[in-house]
Amino acid sequence: TSTREIMAIPCCQSTAIPRVSGLSEKEFHELYFVPAKPVIITDATDDWPARSWTIENLVERVGDNEVWVRGKTNAEDYRVGKAYTIRRDTFAKYCEDLTKGNARARSSYLAVASMQQAFPQLQPDVPLPIYLRNYGKLHLGPYMWVALKGHYEFCHFDPDDNFLVMIRGRKQVRLFGTDLTSLYPNPLGSHGKTVQSQVNCDNPDLEKFPLFANAKCQYCVLEPGEMLFIPAFFWHQVNALDTGISLNMFYGDPGENDFISKMFRQPYQEHFFHWFLNIMEQNKNHQTFPKIISRMPEVVKHFFMKQWHETPTSEQVEKVVKLVMKHFMIDILPAPIMGEGKFPPVLKIRGLLHRDGNKLK
Fold first, then answer.
1. Are strands 216-222 and 171-177 parallel, antiparallel or unpaired?
2. Of 312, 321, 336, 233, nearest to 280 (Cα)?
């Protein structure tokens, strides 16, 4: 089967993601980053020590390191971003299952393993891409992902720009841009930091999700050494074509307010607002919610400072507060409920497991 036949979704308009090499920082920034155009940079990692990694030599180096492993990842509920379990294991034990390809391996996935926390010994092997040095700012990562051949990662979007780097094996990636209507996100209040689609892209149910036929798919098979730019808030769905290793890093614009400012522009704003309301809905039934609403402007400011290390302007805070008030049908914010400390209550991203490996209540 040709790559085009594997990747293209018959019911969608599909186009291949372009591949480039020899791209300067400035060219990447102006041609791809600013206009939010996905691209594969084929030579971005040529000098990375991580390129020599194999599952076997990583087991020798970091086999005793403890990692969080997702379970029940071969269930339909996982494919539509609804549920999975989580367990602690050593990297060596996870890889032993992987090598055997046993039943536990088929239902497990080592995802978003923080290099800093899970694999500090390997950090020097993963340099910061040049494209982040002057024209970007790291938000989170790098993270390692180790998948069994055939793994399907649910379609979702993240609140950060993203570089996905293939180290061993290949992954097929489908992007759907920003399009809430055609991708049917899970109901507001769904768990986690990402927003997930209810559509299984390998086997879309067009009777249940007819508008998915209008989605525009950009696809690729990412080869070892290649780095894919996924713009912030873009839907993406990834399949492991081989048992392999990939890395990613979440980042954004440099500066004190540039990333937040672009969230209020196209193509990001609709997804950004949806993502923020999803987090508000996650908190709706918790006891801190009345306090959060009463001190909403401060809460918003602190939330964005924590998320993206940026300070929103008063106009941006006001826009988000108005969005929340409209959504929850609040005409006037109540008087601030003051707590013990000077800081406002924290708006928590609530989910099954947060990116840093801490369980969220």
1. antiparallel
2. 321
Q: Interhelix angle for 314-327 vs 296-308, to 10°? A: 110
**Phi/psi of residue 126, nearest 5 degrees:** -120, 90
Residue 36, token pair as written in the block:
């939010």
Q: Which residues of 343-355 are buried (b: 16+ CB within 10 A; e: fewer)?
A: ebbebbbbbebeb
Measured in degrees and rounded to the nearest 5, phi and psi for residue 110 equal -90, 105
3-state secondary structure of 298: helix
This prediction's pTM: 0.93
- Within 10 angstroms of residue 102's Cβ, the number of other Cβ atoms is 13
* Bridge partners of residue 90, in order along the sequence: 66
For 10-38, the pLDDT digits (tens) are: 778 889 999 999 999 999 999 999 999 99
* Distance of alpha carbon 234 from alpha carbon 224, whole angstroms: 23
pLDDT tens digit string along 222-249?
Answer: 999 999 999 999 999 999 999 999 999 9
229 touches 38 (CB < 8 A):
yes
Exposed, middle or buried by CB within 10 Å (0-12, 13-18, 19+), for 22? exposed
- Give the span between the Cα atoms of 195 and 214, in whole angstroms: 20
Token digits for 100?
A: 């055997």
Alpha-carbon dihedral sign for residues 323, 326, 329, 333:
positive
Residue in 27, 156, 26 with CA at minimum distance from that of residue 18: 27
Contact 202, 152 (CB under 8 A): yes
Give strand ranges (E) for 48-160.
Answer: 66-71, 85-90, 108-114, 137-147, 152-157
